[in-house]
Specification:
heterotrimer; A alpha/beta; B alpha+beta; C alpha/beta; A: alpha/beta; Rossmann fold; 4-stranded mixed beta sheet; 24 helices; 16 strands; 13% strand; C: alpha/beta; 5-stranded parallel beta sheet; 6 helices; 7 strands
Chain lengths: 610, 235, 207
């Protein structure tokens, strides 16, 4: 196979490296481009990239190994990754994947012998409202069915470049079914910045404080507190303050668009159709905390948005809304750079995101110190969700009182909800906080009798039909914005198993409880699913849940048992019906474990079976 | 007047900048740990040192001591959870003590003894991991690696070499070395490097020294890791 | 009890031997405790270590009697109070023996590293079974025909060697390679006296 040899790797790398410059924080961005061109990261490339950035080879290798979309072995020239979320699964993902594999003569998870194609699964691609979905060489495919797969198989066999594939395969629609103050009202680019400059930075912080805006990523930390802590912090080195080019203490604004929580896709829509609002919120934040540089960390799955987002940034620079002397204000410079992720859910955790921005493995940091005092490159850094910045822009424009009048006392404003699963109208719904689950279910046309709802994705809460009068709010059901609906007769065990697999796949591997605990949880769920579960396995799951919750390094580990514990508590019948016996069952398939030896010896006698 | 925290009802003094673990070790209070080594910056990955501070579980090796903290450490629930973590470390790798040169000097084993581990409890993963005998003086056996990154840190911070690093993710995390061939023998590791000395398990071993001290006369054969690490025991 | 022994979280208390560590020979009034032992994928080292309890054997024999065991040469296990299993599970025959023990023994004890985590035999778990067979039967010298045997009398190996706890429920674990005679003695006397077996620090060893 020619792919393994890259005598001209330096010819390929030179322009890429030149474009990205010498700062090692660009490492991940470089690797993504190399993966694109070569379909893997050749060993020679690792050496050259390491030398270019002046970092050890072993660090580059560590980064390549961490991110799902990078590989040290060739993947197919056409790499098709099916979105593995439970909503895709419910829409037939497993069967469709097998169908395509059969058509292209390739096994799932493997590369075809001619190196043409590889087909596998990936974590939720954020297209749950238009699934089953997949990525082809990083580009999203939606609404897959047999007809589309026939076409795709043909395009691959004829080696048609992905750029020339029919546009309808890549069509992504917003599916906004209910808009409110963010999605339903016009916004004029620059309005929030003008209001901020008119009011002053300090007063704007006061407004954000009074609005009681809380982080939309799910945790609900008060935005004004974060901004004010960051504003008060300075990074020092050798006794001197570290300053930006303008001579001000260096601080950073980071927008977390690593929307990896399965079932969540509202940031996709905000960035697709409301990017000005988001960038404007970042700019307001920059003015308040005194930052001159911002980053948008865009999950790799949303790479298709990169070009249009760059165009928005360019337009905003031309309009004087970004760059030097924003809106003529001599002491206000701020610009935004977009960084791509490469397939790692953990990078949604703010300190892991910062590590990733620095071009490293996405491992959550030890805290303290918190990012607001020591974040990107050790500088004070604000990391906020896409939707939080959009809200901040609105608050800057229209004031705290206007915003605080919406929602509930503890949860002001509106919340974007990504609705998917067994509903007639999946998509985005914007509600004032305090809306009940049953209201949302009515509006989206929940099919049949909705039975259970997963609020805020796998790391959130599973609620049963008995709890549908609960409210979406920080004080009741906090959410990052996902709502997956399951009708009666859905196999909720399969749902929990899908989530358990997800966490095991996405654990960063840093701490023992999460690295091993998520894998143990996955194995036990699989054992139960294949009919080998016993009552003691349920006890083991509860015990594991306790360890994951109380011993893990970060939120991924501590929430990784939520879906399993929820189903055990709220739908015990769903689990117990899977138990074939309450007595002890072997941990593995005894007869199956003899199959290899039977093949080798050619035996099939009674003693060769168990 | 010096500041103090309370660990299991014992008043423990601390200096500004010390972590709970620092303060505990200085006072001769043992908190089980594997990835922590007082010579290096705290890491916080093994989580064995998890303690309960004012009602919340935290890694004691990374959390700064703060006046008045109420720390619970040597309590039944935490020791049971630490035992579970130790068992997890055993089953995720291939820890076959009878066939390991490090036995008796191994901290993973010693912590297991200290916590009274009679079996690994969980089903074994039996992962496929590579051993690497390419280096003239040093043996690398990934079957025994627990990802504490002490070798990574020692090579970077003390030896100035960056011989080791982690790659992969989750349960597929793996220790890699700084050479294009992936072999330890092709790195600039020297047997005198700090990185060679710090492995708590038998993942990194100096060749031809394995049985200089016979089994039965090794560090943890008669003295608990608690006494070894806090200087207690016979006194 | 034996039919549902798989379910018991803790074994039913054994018939009590006389109090104290010193095993009293005046135990003839008591029903003797019946013990079975076997070695699966092990080296019989644990059995050898059992004999290392030396003269204490005389006291023990007043209290216990042996069913199936290499010590008695009884081939099938009957109803017993305690089953002691050395070695891991590496082939189909091991499973038959192990299940026979579980069915017949009120209390099942895994003794030694191999029974507990596969031990040294589990070092083959990193090697493909095809390679194992070929190395042994095709490439290694000394075998005349050089082919892989298919005799039904030969126990058929598993892909991997497993601890016995992955095949049947195990009540107690006594680690060591082998556990010392003292550890075995402490364990047995605790068990026979109705105490939860507990080893002293220096008795607990994985090597």
């Amino acid at each position: 196979m020619k792919q393994f040899e890259f005598p001209e790797i330096s010819r390929i790398l030179t322009p890429i490296l030149a474009r990205h410059g010498g700062d090692a924080s660009r490492l991940l961005q470089v690797l993504l481009e190399v993966q694109d061109v070569c379909h893997f990261i050749p060993s020679e490339a690792i050496d050259l990239i390491a030398a270019h950035f002046g970092v050890p080879r072993v660090n580059v290798e560590g980064v390549v190994g961490f991110y799902s979309f990078l590989s040290t072995r060739p993947v197919g020239e056409y790499r098709l990754l099916f979105s593995g979320n439970i909503t895709d699964q419910m829409l037939g993902k497993d069967e469709l994947m097998q169908y395509l594999c059969n058509k292209l003569w390739v096994e799932p998870g493997k590369v075809s012998e001619d190196g043409l194609v590889s087909i596998g699964s990936t974590s939720c691609t954020g297209m749950c409202d238009q699934g089953p979905a997949a990525l082809i060489n990083g580009w999203p495919l939606t609404k897959l069915d047999h007809n589309r797969l026939d076409l795709i198989a043909e395009l691959i066999r004829s080696r048609k470049p992905v750029a020339d594939w029919p546009a309808m395969l890549f069509e992504v629609v917003d599916n906004i079914h209910r808009g409110d103050v963010l999605l339903g009202q016009p916004f004029e680019p620059g309005a929030a910045i003008r209001a901020t400059l008119a009011r002053g930075a300090k007063e704007t912080l006061v407004e954000v404080d009074k609005s009681n805006l809380r982080g939309r990523g799910g945790a609900g930390f008060k935005t004004a507190s974060k901004w004010s802590l960051c504003h008060a912090a300075i990074a020092e080195e050798d006794g001197g303050v570290i300053c930006d080019v303008g001579g001000h203490p260096e601080r950073f604004i980071v927008c977390n668009a690593d929307e990896g929580e399965p079932g969540t896709f509202k940031d996709r829509v905000l960035l697709n159709s409301y990017a000005d609002l988001v960038f404007e919120g970042m700019t307001v934040g920059a003015r308040v905390v005194g930052a001159s540089k911002g980053f948008l960390y865009l999950r790799g799955e949303y790479r298709y948005l990169l070009q249009q987002l760059e165009a928005v940034l360019k337009r905003r620079r031309e309009a004087g809304l970004l760059g030097e002397t924003i809106l003529g204000q001599a002491d206000f410079s701020f610009d935004i750079e977009i960084h791509l992720g490469a397939g790692a859910y953990i990078c949604g955790e703010e300190s892991a995101l910062i590590e990733s921005l620095e071009g490293k493995r996405g491992r959550p940091r030890n805290r303290p110190p918190f990012p607001v005092t020591s974040g990107y490159k050790g500088r004070p850094t604000v990391v906020d969700n896409v939707e939080t910045f959009a809200c901040a822009a609105k608050i800057a424009e229209k004031g705290a009182a206007w915003f605080a009048a919406i929602g509930t006392a503890q949860s002001t404003g509106t919340k974007l909800i990504s609705v998917s699963g067994d509903v007639a109208r999946p998509g985005i719904y914007e509600y004032p906080f305090g809306v009940t689950v049953s209201q949302i279910l009515d509006d989206c046309g929940a099919e049949g009798r909705p039975y259970a709802v997963q609020v805020s994705g796998p790391s959130g809460t599973t609620i049963s039909w008995k709890e549908f009068d609960r409210k979406i709010a920080f004080e009741d059901l906090p959410t990052a914005g996902a709502l997956m609906v399951f009708r009666r007769k859905r196999d909720l065990f399969q749902v929990a198993q899908n989530f358990a697999d997800f966490f095991a796949h996405e654990s960063c591997g840093f701490c023992t409880p999460c690295r091993v605990g998520t894998e143990l949880q996955k194995k036990i769920m699989s054992k139960i699913a294949s009919g080998y579960g016993t009552a003691s396995d349920l006890e083991e799951l509860k015990r594991l849940g306790h360890i994951l919750k109380t011993m893990s390094h970060c939120g991924l580990g501590s929430s990784a048992a939520n879906p399993v514990l929820d189903i055990l508590e709220k739908f015990p019948d769903m689990v117990e019906s899977k138990l074939k016996a309450f007595a002890f069952k072997p941990a593995f398939d005894l007869d199956g474990a003899l199959a290899t030896a039977r093949t080798i010896t050619g035996r099939d006698d009674d003693w060769a079976h168990l | 007047m010096s500041k103090t925290i309370t660990i299991d009802e014992l008043a423990v003094p601390f200096k500004e900048g010390q972590t709970i673990m620092d303060a505990a070790l200085a006072a001769g209070v043992y908190i089980p740990h594997l990835c922590h080594n007082p010579e290096f910056k705290p890491h916080g990955s093994c989580k064995l040192c998890t303690v309960n501070v004012n009602g919340r579980n935290v890694a004691s090796c990374t959390l700064p001591a703060v006046e008045g903290q109420q720390v619970l450490s040597d309590i039944e629930e935490l020791n049971a959870d630490r035992l579970a973590l130790t068992q997890m470390l055993f089953v995720e790798g291939n820890h076959l003590c009878p066939a390991c040169e490090k036995t008796g000097n191994c901290q993973l084993q010693a912590v297991a003894y200290y916590l009274g581990m009679m079996s690994p409890h969980y089903n074994h993963f039996y992962p496929q991991r590579e051993a690497d005998a390419s280096h003239h003086d040093v043996m690398l056996d990934r079957n025994r690696c627990i990802y504490c990154e002490l070798c990574v840190r020692a090579s970077r911070e003390v030896d100035g070499k960056n011989v080791f690093g982690l790659s992969g993710r989750g349960i597929k995390t793996l220790l890699v070395v700084n050479s294009a061939s992936g072999l330890l023998g092709d790195t600039d590791l020297a047997v005198t490097d700090k990185a060679v000395q710090v492995c708590p398990t038998g993942a990194i071993l100096i060749k031809r020294h394995g049985y200089a001290v016979p089994i039965g006369q090794r560090v943890f054969d008669h003295i608990t890791i608690k006494d070894v690490q806090t200087g207690g025991g016979d006194e | 009890m034996s039919e549902q022994s798989d379910r018991s979280p803790h074994p039913i208390p054994l018939p009590q031997a006389g109090e104290g560590e010193a095993v009293s020979p005046a135990g003839d009034a008591l029903k003797k405790i019946r013990i079975a032992t076997c070695s699966l994928a092990g080296c019989f080292g644990c059995h050898m270590s059992f004999l290392d309890i030396d003269e204490r054997l005389f006291g023990l024999i007043e209290l216990v009697e042996f069913d199936r065991s290499p010590l008695t040469d009884i081939k099938r296990c009957g109803p017993c109070d305690v089953g002691i299993v050395e070695g891991g599970v590496c082939n189909a025959e091991n499973v038959h023996v192990l299940k026979e023990f579980r069915k017949n023994c009120k209390v099942l004890v895994a003794i030694g590293a191999c029974a507990i985590n596969g031990g040294v035999p589990a070092m083959r778990n990193n090697i493909d079974l095809w390679d194992c067979f070929q190395e042994v039967y095709c490439y290694e010298g000394g075998l005349e025909c050089g082919q892989i045997p298919n005799d039904p009398e030969l126990p058929l190996p598993f892909d991997k060697v497993h601890p016995i706890s992955e095949v049947v429920k195990v009540d107690y674990f006594l680690p060591g390679c082998p556990p010392s005679g003292d550890a075995i003695w402490k364990f047995l006397t605790d068990l026979l006296n109705g105490r939860e077996p507990k080893l002293d620090y220096e008795q607990l060893h994985f090597d």
